Amino acid sequence: MSTTEKESINLKLILVGDGHTGKTSLINQFVNQIFNAEYIMSIGQDRFIKKMNIDSKELLIQIWDTAGQEQYSNVNKIFIKKSNICILVYDITSEKSFKNLPKWYNDVLSVNQKENLVFGIAANKSDLYENEEVNVEEGKKYAESIGAFFSETSALNYNTVKVLFEKVVEEYYNKFLKETINNKNTNNNNNANANNNESKTIIIGQDKNLNQNTKKKCCEGKKKCPSPDKKNQNKEEKN
Ligand SMILES: Nc1nc2c(ncn2[C@@H]2O[C@H](COP(=O)(O)OP(=O)(O)O)[C@@H](O)[C@H]2O)c(=O)[nH]1
Ligand SMILES: [Mg+2]
Fold first, then answer.
1. Band of pLDDT at residue 140, cut at 50, 70 and 90
2. Measured between alpha carbons, how far is 186 from 215 in angstroms, rounded to an integer?
3. Coil, strand, or helix at residue 29?
4. Which of 12, 82, 142, 217 has the fewest CB atoms within 10 Å distance of its CB?
5. Do 87 and 12 meet the contact criterion of CB atoms below 8 Å apart?
6. Domains of the chain (ranges plus CATH)?
7. Residues lining ligand 1, judged by CB closer than 6 Å?
8. For ligand 2, a single-atom ion, which residues have Cβ within 5 Å?
């Protein structure tokens, strides 16, 4: 890829879990670096955007907040379906919120069976450890069982929240994007007519098409494509 070419990568991330576990607070801390001790009821979904940089690439993370009491709402389902990353949130002071995680996990899988869906688990309210009802080892064990990244968070503490979001995004990037982007870069480097000022957005979810484009060769997919030198050589041999 040309060094002047701008590239934005859009990723969709959703937080699910029981009400009061701290989903809205985690997002608020990550996006705005603030914590509000009052409970602000989330109505439907709210969408937030956060820019991140990985591998000198700019990622635009769309973060969707959901309302716990609307577990089965169609709106929730639409956003779950579109997401690339899902963070399951429980409150370490509420055993019930932890026990409900498998239900949330299965709900997500029932609408989003994408192979490339990354899961994270936030064991939130870690600052309230005196009132802990769920041992951290239990949380880790469950995360391991579903192949999710596990993180203890406190919505009061930016660093803990940053680690959670960054790790899941990095995991998605390394697993599902890095290779596609590198292939695309090689392809672009070989394209002598590349427009250096082009600005491109990769919409995740269409990356299958993107792969197909990068695979296309000059002979439209024919396996053996003689290089120009070889073609000339053949001509000369005939003459
Ligand atoms: N001590 C503490 N309180 C939190 C934390 N996260 C959220 N809260 C509080 O828990 C309540 C519910 O948080 P909220 O973000 O609205 O939960 P949601 O329903 O999952 O979106 C609010 O009063 C928050 O201030 C946390 O990490 N530590
Ligand atoms: Mg909320």
1. very high
2. 11
3. helix
4. 217
5. no
6. 2-187 (3.40.50.300)
7. 19-25, 37-40, 42, 68, 124-125, 127-128, 154-156
8. 24, 42
